[in-house]
Amino acid sequence: MRIRVTSVFVDDQEKARRFYTEVLGFVAKHDVPAGEYRWLTVVSPEDLTGVELLLEPNAHPAAKAFTKALVADGIPAAQLSVDDVVAETERLRALGVRIVQEPLAMGPVTTAVLDDTCGNLLQLVG
User: Fold this and answer.
1) What pLDDT is stored for residue 17 in this prediction?
2) Which of 51, 55, 92, 116 is deepest in the core (most CB within 10 A)?
3) Taking Cα atoms as reference points, which of 113, 116, 120 lies closest to residue 70?
4) What is the span of the domain harbouring residue 84?
């Protein structure tokens, strides 16, 4: 058994597509109309057949409440692995990304948290 797709709820799929591809550097894998919304996934350019991140519309009231509660409590919706958290944080800051938690050494790993502009916090881990 393997994880094939996981999702984050986003408040605007097109804005999310731009942020996750143009800013974070993911590659759009699927962008298929699905009624009012889209089946919109991105993958790492380093692993095009790897786990897909579904940019899921947060149209359901429970999804909206869930994402708002996570952000209010400072809890990231997803964790992204990078080689160098400090360098990646600086790259993203230069692109105008709001960094919520500066790089912080936590034992054998370093973490940072950013705002994805689409209703979520994301944690970088390296």
Assistant:
1) 98
2) 55
3) 120
4) 5-125
Closest by Cα among 11, 30, 112 to 68:
11
Which pTM value belongs to this model? Answer: 0.95
Tally the domains of the chain: 1
Task: Identify the helix (H) or strand (E) that includes residue 7.
Answer: strand 5-10
Radius of gyration in angstroms for the set of CA atoms belonging to the chain, rounded to a whole number:
14
CB-CB contact of 48 with 27 (8 Å): yes
What's the average model confidence in pLDDT over 95-122?
97
Please report, for the domain that includes residue 49, its CATH number.
Answer: 3.10.180.10
Contacts of 13 (CB under 8 A, 6+ apart): 37, 38, 40, 55, 57
Residue-wise pLDDT for 6-65, tens only, equals 999 999 999 999 999 999 999 999 999 999 999 999 999 999 999 999 999 999 999 999
What is the pLDDT at residue 49? 96
